[in-house]
């Protein structure tokens, strides 16, 4: 239907909460300042009705509809804005429900038609079932069972009268590709993401304790107790704390993770403990997959899987996840379900030759040699301890091993439907890119690459990172790959 429809009135409870959370630092500053004031006038209480009035104004002035093959979003009173998006350009639909959304049965719907902030429409807040029906209409317009569902626009619908199972497709027609196994939580501390989250949490706790240290005798006492322990005990305690924080982040992000595919081929993920997130991806927008193998996961025999698709924003953290850190066998099996090309998913790759090996090892060893040279200078000029030079053998062996592993990770292959490239050691990535999704090429050569007769072949695409590199490949091999995948463009590079 083409009638205008408003957001759900329950948003009047959501927006004041979100506004207060955003303004919480300022509110605390005001309260602290007021605590030492003799003025009894509570003028800051005016903020509360202003926030409520602002929420009411947003609800009154925001409306949307689907008409003439496009979705329109209109908002604003004095500065009225109308945003439109063609239905055939919709690439992904995200449903996000924070804890307060879930309590009220609401969800924020983000409709993406491109890779930028301007290429999306945000409807905050809709009833969860209404958001799912809207998603169904936007992504599965050709499905008669979906188009026969009650429309998400037009006259408001009494949800109590609807039949059960009004999600993106009937439940019996959804193929469950993956469910989270709780035992996979053990991989949480083995990724750089988990460690970064843990480090951020640890820093926050440390900063908070340091501020309370002068006023809390209990914290001071516990800090002294930790300081008096042996260094290795402190190291174990820090390791346990970091692992606990990483596991907590994993649970909050991926708990209840489920990946399904309906009969039209659309992929749908659902995840999250406190904040749930549902992402639906149009199969026509998928351009490949990316298999991540950070060093920690590789040592534990695990991987993770992402999708290479158009329409996912970088700000939408985690929207491209198809599988959280999981056993390699599970990730490989899922990769074959998404991309049924065994040679591309798990086949052998072409090595890049001795020139690439020398370059990988050199790039790993030279920084270590520079550091060691600086230590020698510091020892000679400033009298630094000679014990620091005792780490030289370990650093050299580690750097050589890193360079060799980086070379072993290099590789590529061209299959009838895909270009596959792999590189990296500490964070190894294998990208399976649809040949039809490649829209351009770039051949890059640094000064040292030219001398070694190698190059970096860059395949550009509208999806994912917009470019994927075949690193340090022999120059003739780079042109051969280009000619095989895009013969119509090969002549422009000679």
From TrEMBL:
InterPro entries in UniProt: UCP026631, YdbS-like_PH
Spans through the membrane: 12-33, 45-61, 187-209, 229-257, 361-378, 384-404
Coiled-coil regions listed: none
Keyword Membrane belongs to the record: yes
Highest taxon in the source lineage: Bacteria
Boundaries of every YdbS-like PH domain copy: 59-136, 407-483
Keywords linked to the UniProt accession: Membrane, Transmembrane, Transmembrane helix
Protein known as: Putative membrane protein
Species, as recorded: Humibacillus xanthopallidus
């Amino acid at each position: 239907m083409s009638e205008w429809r408003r957001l759900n009135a329950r948003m009047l409870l959501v927006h004041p909460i979100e506004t207060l959370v955003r303004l919480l630092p300022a509110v605390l500053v005001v309260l602290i300042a007021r605590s030492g004031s003799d003025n009894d006038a509570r003028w800051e209480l005016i903020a509360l009705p202003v926030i409520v009035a602002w929420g009411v104004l947003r609800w009154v002035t925001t409306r949307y509809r689907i008409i003439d093959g496009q979705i329109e979003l209109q908002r604003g009173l004095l500065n009225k804005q109308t945003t439109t998006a063609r239905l055939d350009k919709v690439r992904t639909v995200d449903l996000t429900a924070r804890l307060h959304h879930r309590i009220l049965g609401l969800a924020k719907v983000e409709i993406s038609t491109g890779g930028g902030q301007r290429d999306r429409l945000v409807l905050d807040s809709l009833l969860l079932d209404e958001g799912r029906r809207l998603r169904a209409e936007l992504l599965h317009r050709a499905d008669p069972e979906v188009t026969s569902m009650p429309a998400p626009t037009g006259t408001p619908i009494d949800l109590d009268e609807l039949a059960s199972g009004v999600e993106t497709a009937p439940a019996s027609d959804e193929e469950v590709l993956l469910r989270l196994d709780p035992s996979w939580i053990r991989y949480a501390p083995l990724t750089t993401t988990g460690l970064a989250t843990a480090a951020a949490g640890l820093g926050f706790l440390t900063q908070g304790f340091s501020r309370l240290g002068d006023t809390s005798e209990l914290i001071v006492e516990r800090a002294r107790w930790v300081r008096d322990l042996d260094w290795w005990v402190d190291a174990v305690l820090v390791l346990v704390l970091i692992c606990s924080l990483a596991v907590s982040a994993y649970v909050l992000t991926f708990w209840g993770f489920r990946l399904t595919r309906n009969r039209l081929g659309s992929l749908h993920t659902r995840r999250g403990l406190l904040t749930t997130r549902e992402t639906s991806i149009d199969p026509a927008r998928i351009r490949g997959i990316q298999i991540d193998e950070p060093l920690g996961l590789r040592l534990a025999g695990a991987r993770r899987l992402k999708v290479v698709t158009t329409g996912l924003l970088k700000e939408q953290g985690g929207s491209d996840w198809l599988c959280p850190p999981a056993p390699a066998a599970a990730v490989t099996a899922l990769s074959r379900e998404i991309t049924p090309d065994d040679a591309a998913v798990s086949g052998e790759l072409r090595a890049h030759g001795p020139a690439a090996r020398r370059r990988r090892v050199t790039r790993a060893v030279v920084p270590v040699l520079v550091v060691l040279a600086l230590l020698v200078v510091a020892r000679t000029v400033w009298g630094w301890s000679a014990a620091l030079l005792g780490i030289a053998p370990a650093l050299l062996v580690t750097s050589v091993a890193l360079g060799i592993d980086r070379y072993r990770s290099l590789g590529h292959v061209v299959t009838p439907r895909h270009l596959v490239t792999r590189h990296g050691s500490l964070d190894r990535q294998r990208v399976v890119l649809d040949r039809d999704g490649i829209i351009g090429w770039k051949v890059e050569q640094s000064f040292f690459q030219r001398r070694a007769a190698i190059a970096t072949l860059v395949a550009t695409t509208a999806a994912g990172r917009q470019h994927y590199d075949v690193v340090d490949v022999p120059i003739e091999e780079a042109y051969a790959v280009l000619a095989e995948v895009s013969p119509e463009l090969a002549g422009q590079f000679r």
